[in-house]
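Exercise 7b. Backbone tokens:
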């Protein structure tokens, strides 16, 4: 009988994508194992694209029904990449033979926020997730998330871009983020600068909860909105971009996993907290101001008289970085 393994990560999108190297390492070490994944309902379509995942379970309000089904599966191993009270209680109720969880490093990250002048090696979130495999004697096979699209999803993305009628380079813009403080507010100006160039086009990615105009208040045949797409279809469209500009967000990690180059703008959060993009050519624009990072996920309101972390990150500066990136593919660096 095949070994049965359940991986738990409820949210958020970026963290789920960063769990991909764990799935890959497990399947490499145990190719005959059945690997299932438990997450929140809105992310199931994304995980259904994960190579190596047999079945995706969604966490919703019907906990009793979910627990009954999970117990019936008789999992040998649970890999808990959430490690909160709910995931711990669920794991205990499933009662697997082995449990592996990851070092959350919460105290170290909080210390870096409270004392940013202290030099701490927090490490990347991917490395923390992979550390959970140590107890199972599974060796990592790589740390770069890799997201392989199904043919239907790829075709959707190709059709979307073909229908836009673009010629030349395509720059994806992702103005949203789960927490408003992480949102750089000058995407309209950046898009206007980009489409001034004859060979540049823009796709603006947004979701149902985003509070900006899907077209960034721009009317142009060189800019289209990818609005309210299911996450797997959004990935299909994003895979056709030449480069993506994002805030510190889940879409940043999605672009990395699709091997689409990223220019990521960090402000109240900081790459040192462990969530920087991992692509070889990805670039981070971060001014390392004294008050940043001011919160772990950008959830706290800015306490300064001005938002110093974004103040000197101008649309022209980002556009210049895009130009250098498109025409001179140099190694990843923080600018």
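Sequence design result:
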């Amino acid at each position: 009988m095949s070994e049965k393994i359940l991986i738990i990560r409820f949210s958020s999108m970026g963290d789920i994508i960063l769990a991909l190297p764990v799935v890959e390492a497990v399947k490499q070490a145990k190719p005959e194992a059945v690997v299932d994944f438990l997450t929140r309902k809105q992310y199931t379509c994304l995980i259904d694209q994960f190579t190596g995942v047999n079945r995706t379970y969604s966490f919703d309000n019907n906990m009793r029904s979910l627990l009954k089904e999970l117990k019936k599966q008789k999992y040998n191993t649970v890999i808990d990449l959430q490690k909160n009270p709910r995931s711990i209680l669920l794991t205990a109720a499933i009662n697997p033979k082995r449990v592996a969880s990851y070092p959350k490093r919460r105290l170290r990250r909080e210390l870096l926020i409270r004392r940013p002048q202290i030099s701490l090696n927090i490490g990347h979130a991917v490395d923390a997730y992979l550390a959970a495999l140590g107890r199972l004697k599974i060796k990592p096979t790589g740390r770069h998330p890799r997201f392989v699209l199904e043919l239907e999803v790829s075709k959707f993305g190709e059709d979307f871009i073909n229908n836009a009628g673009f010629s030349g380079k395509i720059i994806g813009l992702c103005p949203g983020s789960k927490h408003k403080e992480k949102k750089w507010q000058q995407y309209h100006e950046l898009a206007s600068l980009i489409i001034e160039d004859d060979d540049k086009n823009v796709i603006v990615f947004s979701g149902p909860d985003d509070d900006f105009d899907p077209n960034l208040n721009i009317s142009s045949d060189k800019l289209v909105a990818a609005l309210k797409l299911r996450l797997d279809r959004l990935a299909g469209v994003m895979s056709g971009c030449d480069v993506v500009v994002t805030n510190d967000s889940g879409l940043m990690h999605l672009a990395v996993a699709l091997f689409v180059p990223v220019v990521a703008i960090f402000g109240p959060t900081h790459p040192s907290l462990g969530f920087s993009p991992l692509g070889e050519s990805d670039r981070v624009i971060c001014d390392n101001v004294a008050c940043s990072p001011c919160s772990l996920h950008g959830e706290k309101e800015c306490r300064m008289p001005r938002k110093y972390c974004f103040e000197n990150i101008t649309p022209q500066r980002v556009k210049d970085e895009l130009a250098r990136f498109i025409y001179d593919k140099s190694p990843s660096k923080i600018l």
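Instructor comment: The chain has two domains: 4-136, 151-334. The chain has a mean pLDDT of 93.
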